[in-house]
# Entry
Amino acid sequence: MNKTMIAFALCCCMVSCIKDEAQNNECDIESAWVEGPELEKNFYQQAEMRKEHISSTETTITFVVRSMAMLPKQIPVNFKITDGATIEPASGSPQDFSKGSVAYTVTSEDGQWKRTYNVAFTEPILPTSKFSFENVDVVETGLLSKKSYHHFFEFDQNGEKLNIWASGNPGYALTLFSGAGPEQFPAYRLENGYEGYCARLETMSTGELGKSMSKPIASGNLYTGRFIVEYTLLNTLKATEFGVMWDREPVRMTGYYKFQPGKEFINSKSEVVKDRVDEPYIYGVFYRNTDPDGKQYFLYADDVLDLDRIEDNPQVYKVARLPSFPPTDQWTYFEMFFEGRDVPEEMVANKDFNLAIVFSSSKYGAEFEGAVGSTLYVDEVQVSYKK
# Structure
């Protein structure tokens, strides 16, 4: 066979491979944004005009604006979607959001899968000041084996659901290879709280999968912010996005807790560290939610690994923490004060700050060190504000 015939045969083979290549079966919105000076004046910060790294578990996309009454009736929202997928209504097409959310349907390239997202514009809602952990949704996940876990939420002053809480439960689900209920996850709601229900947070083993990745434990955590499930395995410290927009300056945080440490403290190599006892972590951070370039800014787990030095971060203005939380089987009152730099009132009023409230059953859980079985209960948490 001469060279010309060989080259022709190779080309035919390559074309055949391209034709036989499977089409993409994903149907996700990866980012969403609006643009233009007419819309920019309706946002507190320009960074709020974009929603990046939208998790595949999210089906609601919300843009927070100063006033719904000032918005144009027709708004074009732009989307970045999975390669090969299509979206209806089309990206960038003007839609009427004045009567509520608009449903967008993304269809995978192979046409076999669809996902509907509800996109909405809303005015900011003042967070509540007291958190009693009474309210949860039961989230079901898994294809071959069903798993369900608790997602905590609040109600605002108008009786509407307010999703300000996140936990590592969605990430922990990836380590389970059989069915599991809420009580088998690190964070869930429990009866017999200080009043009514409480949040129960337990440090759990991540099994052989976690051990092989030097992540042998998952601390039970609950925090204001967002969990990005796609980062769970490869960029774990960026999976926990701490903080939600807050329009008041916090001065004090109080509440009730119970805690008992697990029996054996292990490090990230699954080695038992003798004479080391696990302890919980409860703290708050008040920080700027945009950087000097005007880009949206969040704190992540790697930012708070050394909480004693977090004031070195120029974005951070105030921190509330206590030196220790001794083990106790009885509901025990705690009180901590937000201390740090002066906060300009006009920046607070302009929604320039986020508040991160964090509870963890293992203080060094972000470094995958702690004791399996360490359990923290929290209830009736109250945040007080500057007058």
Notes: The chain is about 10% helix and 40% strand. The chain has a mean pLDDT of 90. The longest helix spans residues 3-20.
